[in-house]
Amino acid sequence: MASTSNDAREDGGAAATTDGVQQPSSTPAPGEATPASGGALPTPAPASPADALSTAKQVEELADRLSACADSIHARVMQDIRRHAGGEVPESEQAAARALLDAEIELRQRANRLYADAAACIVSALGQPQQKLVQLTADAAARITQITRIGDGITLVARLLGLAAAAATGQVAPILVALERLKAQLDVVSAHAAPTAPAA
Known about the structure:
Layout (H helix, E strand, L loop, with lengths): L3 H7 L4 E4 L2 E4 L31 H27 L8 H26 L13 H15 L5 H20 L2 H22 L7
Antiparallel strand pairs: 1-2
Helix pairs in contact: 2-3, 2-4, 2-5, 3-5, 4-5, 4-6, 5-6
C-alpha cells in the first residue's frame, strides 16, 4: 500500500502530510501574489536617472546652469554700459541695469542654496528629462545676452528666479509650472528677436 505522503506528491503537490496531519501547501494558487521575504511589502521602483532632479548631482547641475545665467546677466549689463562709451546713461536704462544686477545677486544666492541643500531638493518622478531642463536654462543664458527688449530680459530673469525657488521646494507641481513659464518666455524672446518680414 502506497504511503499517504506519496499520494500527496502525486496529487499536484496541493498538500503534504506529516504523521497523517495535512499541512498547507507553500505553493501559491494561480494568480495569488507571492509575499516578499519577511512579509515586507514591495517597494515602488525608484525614479529613473533620466528624470530631472532625481539625484543630488542633477540638482547641482541645475545650480551650475543658474549660475551661468547669472554670469550672462552681468555680462549683458556691462555690455549695455560700455555701449555708452563713458557718456551719460539714460535714467530708464540705469533703472533696468539696477534691476538686472539685483536679480543677478538673487539668482546666485538661490543657486548657492541648491548647492548646499542638493540632497534635500531631490524630486521623485518629475516626468521631465534632465536634458530638457539643462537645455532650457542654457537657452536662457544665451538669450539674455541677445535680447533686444529690456523688458523681455527682466521677465526672463524672473522666470529663472521662479525656477530656482521651485526647485528648492523639491515638489513636482511648482517645478513643472516654473518650467512651462520659462519655456513660454523663451518663446516670447525668440519671437521678438525674429526679423520682421518686409511689407508687401
